[in-house]
């Protein structure tokens, strides 16, 4: 799958996390528990000090049922949010797991490939976990410098893996940063030329402005044939800050409703 970022004003130290999504047992699913996906993710401060931070990642990695064109297997259509267990892992530069956190049910953007989760343990504060900063920034414009942050998978021994029943392939997520320049934006996506094509695993990572603020979330890359004349082929596609803000408002709304179940329109893709 081809779809598969001035110093920061915030005084907190930012931390980058990987997100591990595992499909759990269900009578509706023909497969045994297995690792569904790995992606990057990042934290944003909560709207209220009494709430835990938001965890932001790509929707297609934790809700494959909403993206049938990415996942043609029949069994994916039976997957529901309650069948997937998500864990956020903070990793060292060498890929060692420093700490991990179980995550609560996700909230998906109704139109964009972005989801938000919370920590199951509400005692995890924003200051100790390392949140990025959205405040005071717009999405930017053509020619603006950006930096893509995330993780890539390298061969290794799987240091720090704690779950023996995870179907790991021996690869380790390690942090990576790639610079780029914004090319254009549409109603649903932004596109930027990157110094190198973003690798699998960077989906879900933050896109940072030259000032260190989050201006988007990495969605993937533009595959061959996806744009007229392939003008954007290989460019990074990312969800803009406005889409992320809209998702956070939806999270707050659902929390006020006590997480009552509400039908959400499946995510769609432009590419």
> What is the end-to-end distance?
12 Å
Structural class per helix/strand content?
mainly beta
The run of helices and strands is EEEHEEEEHEEEEEEH
Low-pLDDT segments, ≥5 res: 1-14, 25-30, 158-167, 260-271
How can the largest sheet be summarized? 7 strands, antiparallel
Mean of residue pLDDT?
A: 76
> What is the class in the CATH system?
Mainly Beta
Kindly report the spatial arrangement of strands forming the biggest sheet.
Answer: 5-4-1-2-3-7-6
Q: Work out the radius of gyration.
A: 17 Å
Bin the helical content: under 10%
Strand elements, count: 13
Strand content: 25-35%
CATH topology tier name: Thrombin, subunit H
State the CATH architecture: Beta Barrel
Q: Which helices and strands occur, and which strands form pairs?
A:
Elements: E1 16-23, E2 34-44, E3 54-57, H1 59-62, E4 84-91, E5 97-102, E6 107-108, E7 115-117, H2 126-129, E8 145-155, E9 171-185, E10 190-194, E11 206-209, E12 214-221, E13 236-240, H3 241-256
Antiparallel strand pairs: 1-2, 1-4, 2-3, 3-7, 4-5, 6-7, 8-9, 8-11, 9-10, 10-13, 11-12, 12-13
């Amino acid at each position: 799958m081809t779809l598969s970022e001035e110093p920061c004003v915030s005084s907190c130290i930012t931390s980058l996390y990987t997100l591990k999504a595992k499909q759990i047992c269900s009578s509706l699913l023909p497969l045994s528990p297995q690792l569904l996906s790995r992606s990057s993710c990042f934290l944003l401060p909560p709207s209220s000090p009494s709430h835990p931070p938001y965890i932001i990642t790509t929707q297609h990695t934790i809700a494959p049922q909403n993206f049938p064109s990415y996942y043609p297997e029949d069994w994916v259509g039976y997957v529901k949010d309650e069948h997937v267990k998500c864990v956020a892992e903070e990793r060292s530069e060498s890929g060692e797991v420093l700490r991990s956190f179980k995550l609560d049910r996700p909230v998906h953007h109704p139109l964009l490939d972005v989801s938000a989760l919370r920590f199951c343990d509400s005692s995890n504060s924003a200051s100790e976990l390392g949140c990025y900063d959205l405040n005071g920034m717009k999405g930017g414009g053509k020619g603006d410098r950006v930096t893509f942050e995330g993780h890539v998978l390298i061969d290794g021994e799987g240091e720090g893996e704690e779950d023996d029943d995870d179907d790991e392939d021996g690869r380790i997520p390690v942090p990576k940063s790639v610079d780029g320049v914004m090319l254009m934006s549409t109603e649903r996506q932004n596109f930027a030329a990157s110094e190198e094509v973003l690798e699998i695993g960077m989906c879900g990572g933050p896109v940072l402005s030259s000032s260190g603020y989050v201006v988007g979330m990495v969605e993937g890359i533009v595959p061959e044939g996806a744009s007229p004349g392939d003008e954007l082929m290989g460019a990074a596609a990312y969800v803009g800050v406005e889409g992320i803000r809209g998702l956070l408002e939806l999270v707050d709304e659902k929390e006020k409703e006590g997480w009552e179940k509400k039908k959400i329109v499946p995510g769609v893709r432009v590419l």
